[in-house]
Specification:
Shape of chain B: globular
Largest sheet of chain A: 8 strands, mixed
Strand order of the largest sheet of chain A: 2-1-3-4-6-5-11-7
Number of helices of chain A: 11
Structural class of chain B: alpha/beta
CATH superfamily of the largest domain in chain B: Pyruvate-ferredoxin oxidoreductase, PFOR, domain III
Strand order of the largest sheet of chain B: 11-10-12-13-15-14-20
Largest sheet of chain B: 7 strands, mixed
Number of strands of chain A: 12
Number of domains of chain B: 4
CATH architecture of the domain at 9-211 in chain A: 3-Layer(aba) Sandwich
Strand content of chain B: 15-25%
Distance between the termini of chain B: 67 Å
Shape of chain A: globular
Number of strands of chain B: 22
CATH topology of the largest domain in chain B: Pyruvate-ferredoxin Oxidoreductase, domain 3
Strand content of chain A: 15-25%
Oligomer: heterodimer
Largest interface: A-B, 63 and 72 residues
Structural class of chain A: alpha/beta
CATH architecture of the largest domain in chain B: 3-Layer(aba) Sandwich
Number of helices of chain B: 21
Radius of gyration of chain B: 27 Å
CATH class of the largest domain in chain B: Alpha Beta
Order of helices and strands of chain A: HEEHEHHEHEHEHHEEEEHEHHE
CATH class of the domain at 9-211 in chain A: Alpha Beta
Helix content of chain A: 25-40%
Chain lengths: 336, 635
C-alpha cells in the first residue's frame, strides 16, 4: 500500500462558494469537519456526504469529496443503498431537525435500528431555515414563528430520545460554538462502527437567534451544560454541582454537600439504554443539558456487513451464480 | 413411488381445453391450477393461465367475496390467452358456482363438490336453494356431482389425520379427477408432493392417496364415458420451462446483471402484485444480488438511487400506488442521470383500487407522474415470457443512456404463465458498461460531459481524482455544479429530453402483424397482447384488412409509428384503461384513434375484441383514405 498523502483542511474544500447566511452556525460545523477528516487518514475519494434538503443539506457541495444532495428527509435511505453495496466507503449523512425528524422521521428511525455504518450529523437549530422561519419538530412549546403566531402547540421531539428508543449504538451531542468539543465528537463518531448520531446545537441567527444561547455562550454554558465523559461523574458549574440518580430520576446536587461516590458515573458502554435515556431527557432550564457521547456500544453487527455476508455465504454454499443452471431449474421439457 | 396410471376408457382428441378451478380462498385452488399448468406444459401443450383471487388473504369462507379461481388453457397449437369460455369448470362450493358459471360454455362440464353444497353454504353464498338442482343446469351443462369431501376422507383415513387436515387434501382429489379427465400424468405432481411435504410423511402420503383416489374416481365412475387428450403443440424447437411474469422479470434482471458485469441492488417495499419479484430475487444472492426490504416506497427507490450512485445497478419495483410515492425520487434519478430500473406491476386503480385485479392505467403516471420536465424511457412486456427480454432491454437502455427506465408490467402477466423457451447464453445481448478511470486530480472532473448517446459518465465513488457532487438542484452543463442560469436550465432540460428521444434510433422499428396498410390498425401495449393478437388473427381470417401493432416501447416510440398510423383508414386502441395510449397517439401524431376501453379488473376476452373491431372494420371498408376521421401522420 502506498503511503497516503498528508491532507490539510483546505484540501477538503470544494471550489464552490459557501452560501449560508453570515454568522450561521453551519460554518463552524463545516470548518470542524474539514479539520477532522484529514486526521482520519481516509482518502478523499473514499468519503461520501449525503444530505437531504434544508440549509444544512447544502453541506456536500462544499466538500471536495463525493457527495449527493438528495430529497427532503430521505438521505438515510440513499446512504443505506450506497453503504450496503459499497461498504468500503465512509458515508456521512448531513441533516437538519426538520429534515431528519419531520419529513424524514421514518427513515431516521430505520437507519438507526438497522445500525448501518454511517455517520449522521444532525444540525439542530429548532427552526425551519430554508423555508424561512416556520417552527420545527424541536421548537419549544409556545414558540412564536411565522406559522405559529399564537405560539406552537406541538410537543417538541428529542432527537436523542428517539435515537435511543431505536437502540442506536452511538448517540452524541455537541454545540456549533464549542469548536473543540465538536471536533472531538465528530472524530469519535467517525471511529464508531455502526450508525453514529451527533446532534449539533446550531444557531440560526436569522430566524431563531439565541434559541440555544444558554448552551452556546461561554458565560452561560458552564451552568447549563454538563459534559459527559465515560467513567467520570457528572459535574458542572465549575465543579460546584453534580447529578445524582435518586430512585428513577436524576437530580442536581451541590458537590459540597454530597460524597463524590453518590454522583452518577457516566457509562456510555452500557448496553441498557435506560440511563442514557434519562440523560437525553435532561432539559434546560430545569436541568443542565448533557453534551458529549451518551452512548457508544461497540460490536453490534452492522446492516451493511450482514447484507454482504449473506451474499458471501450464498456464494460459498451454492457457488457463483450460473445462469444456465438457473434457467433450467424446475421442470423442463424439450421440443424437437 | 409407482408411475402414473393409464386409462382404459375411450380417449377423445381435442385441440385445446380451457378449464377453471374455483373454490374458497382456503381450498388450494391456486396450487391446483399451478400444478395443472406445469403438468400440461410438461406434456408439450402450449399453456396460458389467469389466476384470479380475492385481495383478502382469507375472505369470509364460503362467501362470494372469498372465491378464488385459476383458469388455464392448454392447447396443441400456439395460444396467446387463457381462453374466453370454459370447457370445464370445477367448483368446490355454491359461491364458486354462482360467480363462475356464466363463463362455462353450453354443454361444458361442470364438476361440483357435492359435499360443499348444503344449507349453511347456500346461506353464505346468498342463494335460496341448491343451485345444482335447478333444471336449467342439468339441461345446459354436463353436470358431475362428486362427494369430494367424503371420498377424500375415506381415501386418507388410514393415515390418521384429523378431519381438518384430511379435508385439506380434497384439492388433491379434485386434481386427480381433473388429471384423469384431461389425460394428464400424475408424475410431476407426485414429485411436487414429495418435495413439498417430504418432511411430513403422513401429509405427503395422504395427498398422494387423495390424488390417486381422484384419478381412480374418474376412471371408475360412470359419470364420465371418456376422457380428453390434448396433443403436444408445435412450438419452436428448444428446451422449455413454464414461467410466470414476475419470475421472468427477476430472471431477466439477474441475466442482465451477468451480461453487464454489474452487481445488482434491489430496494423495494412489499405490494401486490409486485412482491413476487422480491421473493424471487432473494434466491439469487449468489449472483451478487442484494435485496433490501425498505421501510416504505420512498426509502425503497432512494436506496436504489444510492446504490446506483455507488456504481451498482439499482432496481426497484412496486405497483401503481407505490409508484406514486416514488415520483419525487424518480425525478431526482432523472436529473442525477444515473442508471436504474423502476418496475410498475400495474393493478386496478386509483388509490388502493383493486389490488389483485389487472388494469393498465398507469401509463400516464409513468409518462408524466413527476414534477417538472422529466421524461423517462418506458417499456412494457407483452407476455409472461417477454418480461425476461424487457428486463434485459431496460437494463441496456438504462446503462447506455444513464437514466432511470420504467417497465410497465401488470397483474395479468405478472401472475400469468406460459411456456418459455430457455435461451442459450450466446443468444442474449451483451451489455457494455464502463466507469471512468481515476486521475491525478490536476484537472477538475466533469461529471456532466456527454457521449454520443448524450449519456454522462458513471464515475464511482472511491475513484481518485473524480470527486464530484450531484443533487436535485439544476446542474451546470458539463461541470454539474449548481446553476440557476436561465439559459443553462433551458439547455439542460432540452438535453435530457433529447437523450430520451434519441433512444428511438436504437430500438427496432415497429413490426406489424398483417399488412402495413389497410382498413384498420389495432394498436395495443402491455398485457393485452394475447387477446389483441388472437382477435386480429381471427378477423384477418374472416377476410378483413385489419393489422396489429403491439408496442413494447412506449417512450420513445419506434420512429416509424407516425407513418404506420397514417397508413390505415382507422386506428383502434384497445386498453384496460380509459384511453391513455390513445391520448398519447392523438397528441403526438394527430391521429383520430378510436378506443376500446375496459376497466373491470379483467383482461379483454377475444370475443369482445373480435366483435368490436369487426364492426369498425366493416364501417371502414367503404371509406376512402381521404374521408373524414382519417388518420393523419404528423411526420
Amino acid at each position: 500500500m502506498s503511503s497516503l498523502p498528508v491532507l490539510k483542511a483546505a484540501d477538503f474544500a470544494s471550489d464552490q462558494d459557501v452560501r449560508w447566511c453570515p454568522g450561521c452556525g453551519d460554518y463552524s460545523i463545516l470548518a470542524q469537519m474539514k479539520k477532522v477528516l484529514p486526521e482520519l487518514g481516509v482518502p478523499r475519494e473514499k468519503i461520501v456526504f449525503i444530505s437531504g434538503i434544508g440549509c444544512s443539506s447544502r453541506f456536500p457541495y462544499y466538500m471536495n469529496t463525493y457527495g449527493m444532495h438528495s430529497i427532503h428527509g430521505r438521505a438515510p435511505a440513499f446512504a443505506t443503498g450506497l453503504k450496503s453495496t459499497r461498504p468500503d466507503l465512509m458515508v456521512w449523512v448531513i441533516t437538519g431537525d426538520g429534515d431528519a425528524l419531520s419529513i424524514g422521521g421514518n427513515h431516521f428511525i430505520h437507519m438507526l435500528r438497522r445500525n448501518i455504518d454511517v455517520n449522521v450529523v444532525l444540525f439542530n437549530n429548532r427552526i425551519y431555515g430554508l423555508t424561512k422561519g416556520q417552527y420545527s419538530p424541536t421548537s419549544r412549546e409556545g414558540q412564536i414563528t411565522k406559522s405559529t403566531p399564537m405560539g406552537s402547540i406541538d410537543h417538541p421531539l428529542s432527537p436523542l430520545s428517539l435515537a435511543l428508543a431505536a437502540e442506536a449504538t452511538f448517540v452524541a451531542r455537541s454545540i456549533d460554538a464549542h469548536v473543540k468539543h465538536l471536533g472531538q465528537t465528530l472524530a469519535r463518531a467517525a471511529a464508531h462502527k455502526g450508525t453514529s448520531l451527533v446532534e449539533v446545537y446550531q444557531n440560526c441567527n436569522v430566524f431563531n437567534d439565541g434559541a440555544m444561547a444558554y448552551a452556546q455562550e461561554k458565560k452561560q454554558r458552564d451552568d447549563n451544560v454538563v459534559e459527559l465523559e465515560h467513567g467520570k461523574p457528572l459535574i458542572f458549574a465549575k465543579g460546584t454541582k453534580g447529578i445524582r440518580l435518586v430512585g428513577n430520576h436524576l437530580e442536581i446536587v451541590n458537590t459540597a454537600d454530597v460524597p463524590a461516590d453518590d454522583l452518577l458515573i457516566h457509562d456510555e458502554k452500557s448496553p441498557n439504554p435506560s440511563i442514557h435515556m434519562m440523560l437525553a431527557r435532561m432539559s434546560y432550564p430545569e436541568m443542565p443539558e448533557p453534551i458529549g457521547v451518551f452512548r457508544a456500544v461497540e460490536n453490534v453487527e452492522t446492516y451493511d456487513d450482514q447484507i454482504n455476508a449473506q451474499v458471501d455465504l450464498a456464494r460459498s454454499t451454492k457457488g457463483e451464480g450460473d445462469l444456465e443452471a438457473l434457467f433450467a431449474s424446475g421442470d423442463t421439457w424439450t421440443v424437437q | 413411488m409407482t408411475a402414473s396410471p393409464t386409462t382404459n376408457k375411450n380417449v377423445q382428441s381435442v385441440s385445446g381445453i380451457t378449464v377453471r378451478l374455483a373454490g374458497d380462498s382456503g381450498d388450494g385452488m391456486q396450487l391446483l391450477g399451478t400444478q395443472l399448468t406445469n403438468t400440461s406444459a410438461l406434456a408439450g401443450n402450449d399453456v396460458a393461465t389467469f389466476p384470479d383471487f380475492p385481495a383478502e388473504i382469507r375472505a369470509p369462507r364460503g362467501t362470494r367475496a372469498g372465491v378464488s379461481g385459476f383458469q388455464v388453457q392448454f392447447a396443441s397449437e400456439e395460444i396467446f390467452t387463457p381462453g374466453d369460455v370454459l370447457d370445464a369448470l370445477v367448483v368446490m362450493n355454491p359461491a364458486a358456482m354462482v360467480t363462475n358459471l356464466s363463463d362455462l360454455r353450453k354443454g361444458g362440464i361442470l364438476i361440483a363438490n357435492e359435499d360443499g353444497f348444503n344449507e349453511k353454504e347456500f346461506k353464505l353464498a346468498k342463494v335460496e336453494s341448491n343451485p345444482l338442482d335447478a333444471s336449467v343446469i342439468e339441461e345446459t351443462y354436463r353436470v358431475v356431482k362428486v362427494a369430494m369431501t367424503k371420498l377424500t376422507r375415506d381415501a386418507v383415513s388410514e393415515f390418521g389425520l384429523g378431519t381438518k387436515l384430511a379435508d385439506r387434501c380434497k384439492n388433491f382429489f379434485a386434481m386427480g379427477l381433473v388429471y384423469w379427465l384431461f389425460g394428464r400424468s400424475l408424475d410431476p405432481t407426485l414429485r411436487f408432493i414429495e418435495a413439498k411435504f417430504g418432511k411430513k410423511p403422513d401429509v405427503a402420503a395422504a395427498n398422494v392417496a387423495a390424488l390417486r383416489a381422484g384419478w381412480a374416481y374418474g376412471e371408475t365412475t360412470e359419470a364420465f364415458g371418456e376422457s380428453y387428450q390434448v396433443n403436444a403443440a408445435e412450438l419452436v424447437p428448444g428446451t422449455y420451462r413454464n414461467i410466470m411474469g414476475n419470475q421472468a422479470i427477476a430472471m431477466g434482471l439477474v441475466a442482465a446483471s451477468k451480461l453487464s458485469g454489474k452487481e445488482m441492488f434491489y430496494g423495494t417495499y412489499p405490494i401486490t402484485p409486485a412482491s413476487d419479484i422480491l421473493h424471487e430475487l432473494t434466491k439469487f444472492k449468489n449472483f451478487g444480488v442484494r435485496t433490501f426490504q425498505a421501510e416504505d416506497e420512498i426509502a425503497a427507490i432512494c436506496s436504489t438511487i444510492g446504490a446506483a450512485f455507488g456504481g451498482t445497478m439499482g432496481v426497484t419495483a412496486s405497483s401503481g400506488p407505490g409508484i406514486a410515492l416514488k415520483g419525487e425520487a424518480m425525478g431526482l434519478g432523472m436529473i442525477l442521470e444515473l442508471p436504474m430500473i423502476i418496475i410498475d406491476v400495474q393493478r386496478g386503480g386509483p388509490s388502493t383500487g383493486l389490488p389483485t385485479k389487472t388494469e393498465q392505467s398507469d401509463l400516464m403516471q409513468a409518462m408524466f407522474g413527476r414534477n417538472g420536465e422529466s421524461p423517462l424511457p418506458v417499456l412494457a412486456p407483452r407476455s409472461p415470457g417477454d418480461c425476461f427480454d424487457i428486463a434485459i432491454e431496460a437494463w441496456r437502455i438504462a446503462t447506455e443512456c444513464m437514466c432511470p427506465v420504467i417497465i410497465l408490467s401488470d397483474g395479468y402477466i405478472a401472475n400469468g404463465s406460459e411456456p418459455w423457451r430457455i435461451p442459450a447464453l450466446s443468444e442474449l445481448p451483451k451489455i457494455r458498461v464502463s466507469h471512468p478511470e481515476g486521475s491525478d486530480g490536476s484537472e477538475a472532473y466533469k461529471p456532466y460531459m456527454r457521449d454520443e448517446n448524450l449519456a454522462r459518465p458513471w464515475a464511482r465513488p472511491g475513484t481518485p481524482g473524480l470527486m464530484h457532487r450531484v443533487g436535485g438542484l439544476e446542474k451546470e452543463d458539463i461541470t454539474g455544479n449548481v446553476s440557476y442560469d436561465p439559459a443553462n436550465h433551458q439547455h439542460m432540460t432540452d438535453t435530457r429530453e433529447a437523450k430520451v428521444a434519441q433512444i428511438a434510433n436504437r430500438i427496432p422499428p415497429q413490426d406489424v402483424f398483417g399488412e402495413t396498410s389497410g382498413d384498420v390498425l389495432v394498436v395495443s401495449w402491455g398485457g393485452t397482447y394475447g387477446s389483441c393478437h388472437t382477435a386480429v388473427d381471427r378477423i384477418q381470417k374472416a377476410g378483413h384488412k385489419v393489422s396489429h401493432a403491439h408496442l413494447r416501447y412506449l417512450n420513445p416510440m419506434p420512429s416509424n409509428i407516425g407513418e404506420l398510423l397514417g397508413s390505415f383508414k382507422k386506428v383502434v386502441v384497445p386498453e384496460l384503461n380509459k384511453g391513455q395510449l390513445r391520448m398519447l397517439l392523438r397528441a403526438e401524431h394527430l391521429v383520430d384513434c378510436l378506443g376500446i376501453n375496459k376497466v373491470q379488473g379483467k383482461p379483454f376476452t377475444v370475443t369482445e375484441l373480435v366483435e368490436q373491431i369487426t364492426e369498425i372494420a366493416e364501417s371502414a371498408k367503404n371509406q376512402t383514405p381521404s374521408a373524414g376521421g382519417v388518420a393523419r401522420s404528423a411526420s
